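Extended Data, panel c. Modelled sequence:
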Amino acid sequence: MARVALLATGVDCVYFLFFLAVDSPWLAWINVASVAMYALAYQLARRQRLHGAALLIWLEAFPHAVIGTLLTGWDSGFHYLLLMFIPSVILSNSRGRSVAFVVALLVFLVVLDFLTRSLGPLAPLSASAQIALKWLNITIFVTMFSSLSIYYRQKIFQAERFLHAQATQDALTGLYNRRHFQLVAEQELVRCRRTGSSASLLIMDIDFFKTINDTYGHETGDQVLISIAHTLRQGSREMDTLARWGGEEFVLLMPDINAEEARAVAERFRLAVAQQPVIFAGGEIHCTLSFGVTQLRADEALSASVARADRALYRSKIDGKNRVSAE
């Protein structure tokens, strides 16, 4: 809203200078009121008073288009600027209201055309000035419409990125979520079958996490999850896929790594987490991870590999936690 008001203020300043240049000073001074209204709309928008800003923009744009068309004629192109409202109305209102607005705008333009041709230009310009004004309005319309299109394009891309993040990322840790991980892992399993390459899977679980939540509260528990996720992300390769598997469990898919190499990676992660305390408002917590490691097998489903990693993780848990087990 603030950008629209600022851009429109600049446009009216251009009109002011144009009408002075074609020796129509009183037409130029009409734009002073428009500049004042847009400047006020800009201030309201900056203060988040968006309804007031929008009302001022509408109250300026339509009367300005009517006055400009009646004074200089239909061919001057002042009515083009009203078309700018169509995309914003359609994108911000229901289908019924959008259709009603487009129909009302069409009727408005038909009436304005009729009045203009019946009354004739009330303040006609010279032929050369009329042509210059028409192309000035066309240029302004194309420029503003292009700017509006770019703005909505950016908003659409932002919405797409947000929806993609919602669909693939864990909201708390920023890691991939379970659904996205399974999709990537299935694709990697297909690659292993096709090329004969290897890939390994790590499942990690935070030891005594329930005790952490019960002792320090769930907010501190969330901080533990975020901190450990950060440590794991830092130690992962760009080609790896790290995800929050659920609760206090994480999972890591490592292409082109066999079981022995994966076990060494898990041991490195285990030491990194154990040596890096989690800092929170009440002090610090020393956490540990238990690991289950397995290598994907091209002749079996992904669920079988996950089950093996889960069994290895369980063995790490019952053997004393803070250790790596492989199967």
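The first helix runs from residue 2 to 21. This feature is highlighted in the accompanying rendering.
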